[in-house]
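W.,

You were right to be curious about this one. When I first looked at the sequence I had no strong expectations either way, so I just let the prediction run and decided to look at it fresh. Below is the sequence, 78 residues in total, followed by the output.
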Amino acid sequence: MTGRGHPDDDLPPPAPPRSALTLRLWLAGFGVVFNGVAAVLCVRAGLTWLAVLLAVIVVGLIVDFGWVVHRKRRGDPG
């Protein structure tokens, strides 16, 4: 060695790993809007069973959205 040490010594330290909570928040929000509109359109088209299925998905997405907001307020990275 010529006294410089490791070849990567010039690089800044790596960023800490982050979770994808913000992406999950955006995807859940998009899913609520998209599936909610699709459920309304299915009701108008007479596809009640599909509208109920989409409404159940919307409820699950709302729960996920709330959980992600809770984790972000708690201070989890992302």
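Here's what jumped out at me. The chain has a mean pLDDT of 88. And, maybe more interesting for your project: Residues 35 and 56 are 10 Å apart (CA to CA).

Coffee later to discuss?

I.
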